[in-house]
Write a structure and sequence with these properties.
Elements lengths: L12 H5 L8 H9 L10 H4 L19 H5 L2 H10 L7 H17 L6 H11 L4 H8 L2 E3 L28 H16 L7 H27 L7 H22 L9 H15 L5 E3 L2 H10 L6
Helix pairs in contact: 7-8, 8-10, 9-10, 9-13, 10-11, 11-12, 11-13, 12-13
Length: 299
């Protein structure tokens, strides 16, 4: 039953938080029934009092001493809250507000879920390029599930690439997606907040500029060269996002905001949203929402 809490599969905290341990997903229930295993929901009230706790597993095929803390924390804190909260406590936004604080607290306690990854990226990119490399990589996440296992990994395979130096979940990408949702909700009346649009555009420019600036670093490092398509995809995504913001700020009056533009933009975002090697660009869903919100000009 703990499979929905496997930390090594790189799912976000919100995924684990959404699973009630007493109400498992249907596919998991079906599998347990086929295995003639007990189902939590089948327990009688007098039986549930014997439940002592829950379990979250972390398998180490793709973990090292440098990134193990990052794979465990802070998502394990979110799972712990899920186990010990009322079933009615299910708001992911509220959970993330606490998780951000817990992440800082864990560092103060001496865990290295953030600092060790920063040192890994500094080693990969070099001290001079480390700040730009950090900005470029802050919206990336590892692929989910067992898809990374398709490669042949052995005991002596060095886990020293970009995907090994980033956390399972990107806070920067999540905050960007939240800001996009807030911007679009506020503009649902037809008038978009120009200050919010400017802030989003600034973020996209920063990521685009960082992606362009790190290309020589990626190209010159054998451990990073496979990530050149990621940098190129990031630049394309940021350009589409800024174009969409421009169309939205003009309240749909731009002649460029046509069905043809939207189709081309949506197709490009879809391509850029697909895994690039072992990485996902997690600002892509927010940019897709911006594209979807652009309306064609009124004749």
């Amino acid at each position: 039953m703990s499979a929905v809490y496997y930390l090594d599969l790189m799912y976000p905290a919100s995924y684990h938080y959404a699973v009630d341990p007493m109400v498992l997903p249907p596919e998991r229930v079906e599998r347990l029934r086929k295995q003639n295993q007990p189902i939590p929901a089948d327990l009688a009230p007098q039986e549930t009092r014997f439940i002592l706790g829950g379990e979250a597993a972390m398998w180490e095929e793709l973990a090292t001493s440098e990134n193990l803390d990052a794979k465990l924390w802070p998502r394990l804190a979110a799972i712990a809250e899920r186990f010990w909260s009322l079933q009615s406590t299910t708001d992911p936004a509220s959970m993330y507000a606490r998780l951000d604080a817990v992440n800082l607290w864990l560092e103060w306690l001496g865990l290295t879920q953030r600092s060790d990854l920063e040192l890994m990226r500094r080693r990969l990119a070099g001290p001079a390029a480390a700040p730009l490399f950090g900005r470029f990589s802050e919206v990336l996440e590892p692929v989910k599930g067992y898809s990374r296992h398709a490669q042949r990994y052995g005991t002596f395979t060095p886990l020293n690439t970009l995907v090994d130096s980033i956390p399972p979940e990107s806070d920067a990408a999540r905050h960007f997606r939240e800001a996009v949702d807030k911007f679009l909700f506020a503009g649902s009346t037809g008038v978009h907040d120009t200050a919010a649009a400017s802030a989003l555009a600034s973020q996209l420019r920063n990521w685009s500029e960082a992606s362009a600036a790190v290309r020589p670093v990626l190209q010159s490092n054998p451990n990073l060269a496979d990530n050149l398509p990621v940098a190129d995809a990031m630049i394309s995504l940021c350009q589409i996002g800024n174009d969409a913001l421009g169309h939205l700020s003009s309240n749909g009056a731009s002649a460029a905001a046509t069905d043809e533009w939207k189709k081309h933009a949506a197709d490009t975002v879809k391509q850029m949203s697909e895994r690039k090697g072992d990485l996902l660009i997690q600002i892509a869903p927010g940019i897709q929402k911006l594209v979807d919100a652009v309306s064609a000009p009124t004749p």
